[in-house]
């Protein structure tokens, strides 16, 4: 037991260091290579994580592992084909590292319920620490952390954004307010299911409220969409599990959601994506712009299906900006459909295997929190682009779900809804004498 604790302690420290490194806003240059703290972390521990993954410390090699590695190599190859090796070698190398190493770090470091709780606890603690800074930035427009570290180091630029709801958008320690909102969003469901006992409604709601407040401070519709989805899924779970005659609430949810989607498609002259983008947005102009980005960029995806267009020009009207506010669309546009497909399939497989692994008790609760949180982040990525530290957080979160489907990591088994078997009570007292076990002569 002592050996297991001693072995787990370095993992907990590495989890904490990784999460803290993600919210450090300063960087420096090594030649032409920009190194922020999370990149330093990835470079320092890269070979450690790869070796531990190869020697079995993360369990057996899984299909999502292979998909992530091949996706990163495909993205690098697409850049080389479109622009040549010399001009893209540095960018492609960092892209591979930021895609694979955070994923493998999670695979290696999170191998138990205790390590998963450590991850969620540190994630939550960081948001609690940053929330007052975000509130102050909402009210004053002053990015405290950028100014503090900027007095002695190079930091991210202060992004000028139009106020929303009478408030300034909080960037806090990220390159853009959108990234801060997306970074905070997964903690909404993770903290609900992992950091508070089942039925402790106030504790669950208070922790999720803090995560939701962080998302609100960013005033980002994409991040807000992820939280709304998580809240709906949590509400469904908490409500329907109290109805005893409904045996499989998630199968019922899938059927109802599919029916609603079909109704939206058939009853409106807009598709479901257009409806969601229009209605769940702080700005109608932003929603309209996202819809037109998709309509224009998809043509280039279909014209360049295998290697994309790289980081070069994509076909669009002159008045349209070059930014693509859709992570999945940009992956297909830049690197081709195979890269998009492998990234998407890896995420789907991790969630799928986790959902259909028989778990009970706290393992099942943590699993629900993970699947809901990661699903929310995947959906948010349809309306925002994810890069820099938030991209690494996304890859780490993806890898953090693989252990749920590993029987060596989960100590409980059986159906999630299985009831404990009743224990037959033994009669302690009787008027009959206890039979003698001694031999008679």
Structural overview:
The chain is an all-alpha fold and 441 residues long. The protein has one domain (2-405). 64% of the residues lie in helices and 2% in strands. It contains 17 helices and three strands. Strands 2-1-3 form a three-stranded antiparallel β-sheet. The N and C termini lie far apart (49 Å).
Q: Descriptors for this entry?
A:
3-stranded antiparallel beta sheet; 17 helices; disordered C terminus; single chain; disordered N terminus; mainly alpha
Offer a concise description of the structure.
With about 450 residues, the chain is an all-alpha fold. It is built from 17 helices and three strands.
Task: Detail the topology: elements first, then pairings.
Blueprint: H1 2-22, E1 26-30, E2 33-36, H2 37-54, H3 63-83, H4 85-109, H5 113-140, H6 144-150, E3 154-155, H7 177-184, H8 187-194, H9 201-218, H10 221-240, H11 249-267, H12 272-279, H13 284-303, H14 327-335, H15 337-355, H16 361-380, H17 388-399
Helix pairs in contact: 1-2, 1-4, 1-5, 2-4, 3-4, 3-15, 4-17, 5-8, 5-9, 7-9, 7-10, 7-17, 8-9, 8-16, 10-16, 12-13, 13-14, 14-15, 15-16
Number of domains: 1
Total strands: the figure is 3
Strand content: under 5%
The main sheet orders its strands as 2-1-3
Structural class: mainly alpha
Question: How far is the first residue's CA from the last residue's CA?
Answer: 49 Å
Shape: globular
Determine the number of helices (DSSP H or I, runs of at least 4 residues).
17
> From N to C, what is the helix and strand string?
HEEHHHHHEHHHHHHHHHHH
What value does the Rg take, in angstroms?
24 Å
Helical residue percent band: 55-70%
Q: Report the average pLDDT across residues.
A: 88
Largest sheet: 3 strands, antiparallel
**Low-confidence sequence ranges:** 1-7, 413-429, 436-441
């Amino acid at each position: 037991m002592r050996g297991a604790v001693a072995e787990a302690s370095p993992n907990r420290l590495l989890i904490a260091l990784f999460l803290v490194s993600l919210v450090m806003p300063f960087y420096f240059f090594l030649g032409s290579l920009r190194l922020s703290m999370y990149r330093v972390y990835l470079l320092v521990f890269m070979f450690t994580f790869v070796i531990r993954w190869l020697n079995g410390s993360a369990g057996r090699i899984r299909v999502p592992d292979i998909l992530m590695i091949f996706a990163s190599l495909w993205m690098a190859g697409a850049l080389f084909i479109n622009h040549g090796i010399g001009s893209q070698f540095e960018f492609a190398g960092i892209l591979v590292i930021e895609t694979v190493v955070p994923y493998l770090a999670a695979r290696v470091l999170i191998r138990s319920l205790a390590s998963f709780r450590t991850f969620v606890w540190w994630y939550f603690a960081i948001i609690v620490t940053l929330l007052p800074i975000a509130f102050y930035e909402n009210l004053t427009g002053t990015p405290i952390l950028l100014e503090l570290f900027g007095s002695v180091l190079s930091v991210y630029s202060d992004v000028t954004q139009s106020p929303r709801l009478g408030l300034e958008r909080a960037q806090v320690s990220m390159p853009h307010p959108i990234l801060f909102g997306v970074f905070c969003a997964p903690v909404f469901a993770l903290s609900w299911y992992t950091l508070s006992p089942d039925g402790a409604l106030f504790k669950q709601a208070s922790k999720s409220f803090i995560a939701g407040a962080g998302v609100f401070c960013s005033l980002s519709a994409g991040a807000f969409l992820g939280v709304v989805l998580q809240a709906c899924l949590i509400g469904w779970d908490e409500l329907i599990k109290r109805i005893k005659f409904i045996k499989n609430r998630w199968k019922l949810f899938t059927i109802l959601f599919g029916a609603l989607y079909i109704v939206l498609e058939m009853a409106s002259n807009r598709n479901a994506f257009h409806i969601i983008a229009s209605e769940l947005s702080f700005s109608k102009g932003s929603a309209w712009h996202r819809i037109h980005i998709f309509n224009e960029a998809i043509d280039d995806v279909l014209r360049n299906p295998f290697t994309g267009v790289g980081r070069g020009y994509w076909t669009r009207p002159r008045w349209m900006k070059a930014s693509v506010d859709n992570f999945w669309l940009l992956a297909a546009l830049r690197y081709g459909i195979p890269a998009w497909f492998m990234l998407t399939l890896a995420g789907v497989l991790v969630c799928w295997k986790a959902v259909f692994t028989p778990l009970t008790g706290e393992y099942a609760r943590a699993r629900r929190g993970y699947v809901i949180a990661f699903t929310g982040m995947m959906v948010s990525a349809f309306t925002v682009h994810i890069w820099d530290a938030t991209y690494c957080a996304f890859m780490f979160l993806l890898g953090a779900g693989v252990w749920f489907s590993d029987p060596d990591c989960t100590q409980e088994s059986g159906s999630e809804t299985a009831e404990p078997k009743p224990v037959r009570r033994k009669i302690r007292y009787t008027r009959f004498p206890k039979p003698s076990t001694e031999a008679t002569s």
